[in-house]
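Narrative progress, year one. The postdoctoral researcher (J.K.) led the effort to move from monomer predictions toward full complexes, under supervision of the PI. The following entry was the first complex the group processed end to end, covering 1027 residues in total.
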Amino acid sequence: MRSLLSLLLLIVPSVLVSAADYHEQLNLRPLPLSALLASFNFRANTSLADFEAHNFRLFPRSLGQILQYAGTRELHLRFTLGRWDAESWGTRPWDGTREGGTGVELWAWLDAETDEEADEKWLTLTNALSGLFCASLNFIDGTRTIRPVLSFQPEGDHPNSTLQSTRLLHGVLPHEVVCTENLTPFLKMLPCKGKAGIASLLDGHKLFDASFQSMAIDVRPICPSEGECVLQLEQTVDMVLDVDRSKRPHDNPIPRPPPGHDLICDITKPYHEPGDSCYPVDHLRGQDWTLSQIFGRTMKGTCPLTDAEVPPVCVHIPPTRDIFASEGAHEIKYSNDDSLRCYKIEQDQEFTLILTKTESSGGEVAPLGIVKPETPVLYAERSFTGHGQEHGGVQAILTNPGDDPVEFVYMESLPWFMRVYLHTLSARISASSPNVNTSSADIIKEIYYRPALDRARGTQLELLVSIPPHCTVFLTYDFEKSILRYTEYPPDANRGFDVAAAVITTLEPKVMNIRTTSLLLYLPTPDFSMPYNVIIFTSTTIALAFGGLYNILVRRMVGANEAPRAAFKDKFVGFIEKLKKKRAAASAGGSAKPAAANTEAK
Amino acid sequence: MSTTMTLQSKVGVFAGAALLRLVLFTAFPSLPDLLTGRVEISTPVTSFKRLQEGLFLYDHNVSPYDGGVFHQAPLLLPLFSLLPDVKTWPIFTALLYILVDLLSAYALLVIADSGEAGQSKHFTSPRRAKRSSGLLVAAAFLFNPYTIASCIGRSTSVFTNCAILFAIAKALSGSPFNSMVAISFASYLSMYPILLLPPLVLLAYDRQSEKRRIGSAIQFSLRAILIAATCISLLLAMSFALTGNSWDFLARTYGIQLTLSDLTPTVGLWWYFFIEIFDSFRAFFLAVFWLHLVIYVGGLSIRLRTQPLAVLTILLGIFAVFKPYPSIPDTSLFLAMLALFRHLYPIMRYTYVASATMLYATFLGPAFYHLWIYAGSGNANFFYAITLVWSLGQSLFVSDLTFAVLRDEWEVERPDMVGKEIRQI
């Protein structure tokens, strides 16, 4: 009876708060040309007391137990593919805070008094997460782990006392290929498991066909000013779909040019001539799609656990465009933002959205029909310079397009076989910038550097950089490519080694993250096919040198005529002489015989 | 009259060599960096670029030994941080290297003029009349393209070479203490010169000055070893204090030579062997290669007891071939010492073959390296093959010199065999 009562007591409050503890939302934002950004966001809160009592409801038990076992205070895990094209797509979703570098990126604050303890817990965490997410996270070893100093700040609310006894570790696997086997466990962590709600739109074929795709898992404690602390699990999927590619029919997947009569031409071009030359303006007329076309399936109602107050689907599009929603959906418009439209959906009804083409009047080119993307605070790109497999350089081009100076932390986590020469680090401001006279010391304010140790740890480089308005800065440094033991090369050694993306965290004017693309480093390779030959050749050379010297040192010198004749040589010379004698005898006998015959004939 | 003549010509040779280097440094400002980047001249333990990186970290209060780039002795750091920055004032670094080269040449001059090569305490060569003059030896060293390249490439092994030459010169001039101090410096900088200690002690013992003579060989060598050990310990203790009270530098400077963890290509035999060796045999072969290097010291010192200078020369030749990170500066030191034995040239048998092989390797080495690393039309075997040829050619020189020394010795007891064909049984 008492146990039943306590059970009831446990259930009742959780049922009461459940409505507010989980919400999910899909934001659709058409981007220039045929790109469409879809941001899925799932957020679940569990009170810290419940979590510590192993009382998992919305929080997945599998992940919760790992976090408890590894003493993890805050966790961030990213699976990313592709490149965000900031030049045309503008600022990143969530200001870049929900994306990682290409591959897998993981950082966490672990409860640990010493660095050794942190390393142990980190090993536990990476190995457990590796199993949970079917990713090679267990390959995040000492050489791929760094301890960032400036770049990452905890997102959750931690009391100062606990923060002092935690360690931040950061690991990255740039070579990891993110694919459907990582999506399945991701969906399984959701309360509705991808069976209902916006998660039912997530299909591996479409997600991993996207131009850019990032899956993020964030676990952080949140302590509101009143009320108890909660542990928040936020799962985010951002994807930039190519609408044209998504709409390509399954039965005819090979793209073919449309026939001439289907082309929509820009007739304002001087060279336009019907049936002869045409400047296609199809993409200028804006996108048109339906939800089921771009995601490959329809949305199956809403998740029953989700907060009813939060509309599950929102579209960012100018109010002039027409959108039709399926029956039963309720459109909400906001007075403060007229380009935002959200839809409330019945719980068990299929939902679809249809965005229609803008109608162009006559030959006039229609406006883009999308919300213009915001200009980012900073553009960043990074590449290798130099040629050959001995020396190289890294060049990061950082552009501040705005009117305010930008201050940021530039962080690199480089593999140990890239021997960085920090004394060659320089920051050069481009000649076309207004403040050409700014020196390297004015740009790089602070350097935090931890050099690599062979086979033990990678290079960690953090720079505090400030760029004046409208300036481009070239950050360069040299490195040497080391040659490895032949067992240390991967089977595809001539493909090269992946170098993780640089992480840029802007501090001024606002906090946001940017990641460059990862790089492919081509190291010199030995000949993998001939270890035996090399061992034999080198040993022979050494044996020749040693044997020669040894002979000279230990043997006695005598005159050539005093030396006793070697037994073998005697035999050999005797044999040769015997042969010679035989031949001489044979030739003598041969010439004698005919003479004898002649005498007989006579 | 003749003394002023020789003095004049000495000044001429030294000034000419200094001027040549200075012109190369100043007229071709990109040449030093080009040569520094060459694997033939710079090895991981002698590279000037790595020294600069270590210096940068040292100046910015990051321990250079907490990283995988810098593998050179700690005392080089304060020495170079005293010099003005090499990027803005390259001339001061250049002057330092030129000075070190001239000092080495001076030491060679002293060694050659002592006549030890032809006449030691226990042995007088019948051919000693033909020995080379000190000036010629110094000029051969100073104008050797290998020496010039290592000077312009600013390899830190020129400091080791200078210390070794001074150790020999001091031993010859009868000051064993200075000699031991010099060899301690060399060993501290590069480790391998410690193996030169036995023949050097013998040389110093033979050439003691009459005033402070120690009769007992054991007593003398114990004293010498004690001096060297004290001096090395002092240097190591200074380094310990200099690197923030940590012994990390031992593993980074000497440990890397013992374990060969950095496999950057060199002209030697170790790098490719230890790239390709199976992991389970790595430790065994490291031990074998080091044992092979050490084993010559005892054998040569005993067999050629009467000629310690010849032992030193032969050992330097062996080290230039078989040490973990050999480079051109080591070869230039061996060739400089070889010039002391001009009276033995007529009885060397393979000088033509050996020098042709070395020339061949000198020209083809950079070409094959280019094919492998830059053009991509060759693979690592190209450069490996040429390092084999280089090593064979040089070891041929070494064994030929050994043969000539022994024959010269033998002809003292068999003067009738001069110029006749001989055999070894």
